[in-house]
């Protein structure tokens, strides 16, 4: 169904005269959500933030929700969903720098016992692509994807010495338009911004010094206490591809003493990184041909509310991340199952919008660091509980009983997330509540995830006692209960923790296949037989665990996540 386009929606033209409309508008909605100070926006907020018509916003939200990139809460709040990190992961794989350099950055952080980061130039800003953190007294911890103003960090002074006159002009415009740095959600806004002219002359001086010295410092330019020293890392062609920084706090180092302490090592590791970039990259494995273009089926299902060209554009974007160095047009068509002409339109749109560029020889397209602005840093700040929570809420809606996620803590399980319906236990469970692992369904699947010996040792040392007349306490019984959970892939515990309470649990695996948590549903013992519980709950419970695992895998592809 056609709709009246507002002025802001008029189709822009990509190089070659191709329309970029739906993809551009979809990305505008993602950017608005990523830049918004709070985690959720209503469609009306999105209309105001993007200038798009309400009907357009609705279609984009429907489409992006179908793709798993957004989720809806309380019927109308729109939130970014962890799967969106696929886009940033695609850039990080495509650019190849984290894979080539991060192991060295981690080694350097260990050697110096300070935080080490890698950052790339992104327009007039500096964007982090790797963080090996040892944050101690620092209030701020930057994440992969965070953008800093070039003049307020050490890497910016290194990158700016290579700026073209246009880039310098862009930077100056930005400085004058936004002297308080409100366009940089990761940095505290300046309450009393210095005059842009002063900022400009101070930055020019730092850029000149950095050019002469081959390194740059940040002496509390972002926040009081934070000091950093950075060196450039060059590609074989001499261009600066990224900056290697070490970050500390004035409680340990002044900017000067940090430079004295860290520069020899920074230079050594910078040289090793350059050598790593100069050695022939491992032959990129061609991406497995993608399945058929599924946007056709979704279009049939969702009709006019589903924006096929937005979906196709995003599938081309993620496909570029299937190989370091990007893909050719034919490669992109093959990886997405799209017709060449369709893939070409998407590539040109992405280029026009600043997310992709032709690169190197062989007519390849690569992704640009701006892809990370699409929510990557915000989503990397989600805790494990926040990742699990919406899946628990959905499960509770399906089964009408309380659901929880717990981890193993010594001989106990410890709750990390919970969504309840009516309270059926005598104790009130909150996050942090502990129960003995041996008497709970989550405990049994968590123990089943350990190597058999380790599980047996834990059971042997636990102080086991009958909590109800049904509690299994014999050592052999408990070993068998855990073995059965291992065989079945779930555990069902009937009134062993509390009379009248029945609970069924399945494991949650991380991307390496290790059991890191368990998810359960607890119900009244009066609700039918044990088999009834299995039939009524297990499919939804298993699906919830799988959904948590999927999110976990996307989030932790590049970001370390603490699972309590
Ligand atoms: C950081 O890695 O957090 C960092 C690096 C350089 C700076 C400031 C912060 O100038």
From TrEMBL:
Domain IclR-ED residues, every copy: 83-279, 370-554
Residue ranges, compositional bias (Pro residues): 186-196
Keywords for the protein's UniProt record, in alphabetical order: DNA-binding, Transcription, Transcription regulation
Renumbered residue ranges of the record's region Disordered: 178-200
Tree of life domain: Bacteria
SUPFAM superfamilies: GAF domain-like, Winged helix' DNA-binding domain
Pfam families registered for this protein in UniProt: HTH_IclR, IclR_C
HTH iclR-type domain location: 20-89, 307-369
Keyword Secreted: no
Listed Gene3D superfamilies: 3.30.450.40, Winged helix-like DNA-binding domain superfamily/Winged helix DNA-binding domain
SMART domains: HTH_ICLR
Annotated protein name in UniProt: IclR family transcriptional regulator C-terminal domain-containing protein
Organism in which the protein naturally occurs: Streptomyces sp. 900116325
């Amino acid at each position: 169904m056609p709709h009246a386009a507002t002025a802001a929606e008029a189709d822009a033209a990509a190089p070659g005269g191709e329309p970029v409309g739906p993809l551009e508008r979809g990305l505008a909605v993602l950017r608005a959500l990523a830049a918004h100070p709070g985690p959720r926006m209503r469609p009306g907020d999105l209309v105001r933030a993007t200038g798009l018509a309400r009907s357009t916003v609705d279609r984009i939200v429907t489409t992006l929700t179908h793709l798993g990139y957004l989720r809806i809460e309380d019927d109308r709040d729109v939130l970014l969903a962890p799967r969106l990190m696929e886009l940033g992961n695609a850039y990080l794989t495509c650019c190849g720098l984290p894979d080539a350099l991060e192991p060295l950055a981690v080694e350097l952080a260990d050697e110096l016992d300070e935080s080490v980061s890698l950052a790339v130039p992104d327009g007039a800003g500096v964007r982090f692509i790797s963080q090996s953190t040892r944050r101690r007294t620092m209030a701020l911890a930057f994440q992969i994807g965070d953008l800093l103003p070039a003049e307020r960090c050490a890497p910016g002074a290194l990158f700016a010495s290579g700026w073209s006159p246009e880039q310098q002009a862009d930077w100056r415009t930005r400085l004058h338009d936004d002297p308080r740095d409100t366009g940089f959600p990761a940095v505290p806004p300046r309450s009393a911004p210095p005059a842009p002219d002063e900022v400009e002359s101070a930055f020019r001086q730092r850029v000149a010094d950095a050019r002469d010295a081959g390194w740059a410092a940040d002496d509390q330019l972002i926040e009081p206490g934070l000091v950093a020293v950075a060196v450039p890392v060059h590609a074989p062609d001499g261009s600066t591809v990224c900056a290697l920084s070490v970050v500390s706090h004035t409680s340990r180092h002044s900017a000067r003493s940090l430079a004295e302490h860290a520069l020899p090592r920074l230079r050594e590791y910078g040289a090793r990184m350059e050598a790593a970039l100069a050695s022939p990259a491992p032959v990129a494995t061609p991406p497995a041909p993608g399945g058929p273009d599924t946007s056709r089926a979704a279009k049939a299902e969702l009709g006019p509310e589903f924006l096929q060209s937005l979906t196709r554009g995003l599938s081309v974007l993620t496909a570029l991340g299937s190989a370091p160095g990007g893909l050719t047009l034919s490669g992109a068509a093959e990886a997405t199952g799209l017709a060449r002409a369709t893939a070409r339109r998407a590539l040109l749109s992405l280029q026009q919008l600043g997310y992709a560029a032709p690169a190197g020889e062989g007519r390849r397209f690569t992704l640009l660091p701006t892809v990370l602005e699409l929510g990557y840093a915000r989503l990397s700040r989600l805790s494990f509980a926040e990742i699990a929570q919406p899946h628990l809420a959905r499960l509770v809606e399906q089964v009408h009983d309380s659901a929880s996620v717990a981890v193993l803590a010594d001989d106990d399980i410890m709750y990390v997330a919970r969504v309840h319906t009516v309270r059926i236990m005598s104790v009130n469970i909150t996050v942090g509540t502990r129960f003995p692992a041996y008497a709970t369904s989550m405990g049994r699947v968590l123990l089943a995830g350990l190597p058999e010996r380790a599980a047996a040792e834990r059971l042997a040392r636990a102080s086991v006692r009958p909590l109800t007349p049904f509690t299994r306490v014999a050592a052999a019984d408990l070993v068998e209960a855990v073995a059965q959970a291992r065989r079945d892939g779930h555990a069902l515990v009937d009134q062993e923790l509390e009379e009248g309470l029945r609970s069924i649990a399945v494991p949650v695996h991380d991307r390496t296949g290790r059991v890191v948590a368990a998810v359960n549903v607890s119900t009244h013992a009066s609700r039918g037989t044990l088999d009834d519980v299995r039939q009524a709950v297990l499919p939804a419970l298993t699906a919830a665990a799988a959904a948590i695992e999927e999110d976990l895998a996307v989030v932790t592809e590049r970001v370390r996540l603490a699972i309590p």
